[in-house]
């Protein structure tokens, strides 16, 4: 089954965000507005659905994906990276001139 990992650049950005906002969580976006960016939220400000699947943790932060997306991506390893740009409108990486990006690598089944 798929996993989630983070690059050193992503781990550094997570550390910066946690220092500013406290504990965070990630939810893999599948929406139209933010494409497929991983969204970073304060842990207390995002309600996890019973249909969300926890893939693992990155930088101590839980990482979730919707059950429907999980069915599509369950044989893929997600790699969370950082690139230049603006984060999703409600994601804590917004306004930092760098944002999280999901890369993928197909797992062997």
From TrEMBL:
Family annotation (Pfam families): DUF779
InterPro entries: DUF779
Protein name listed in UniProt: DUF779 domain-containing protein
Organism: Paracoccus pacificus
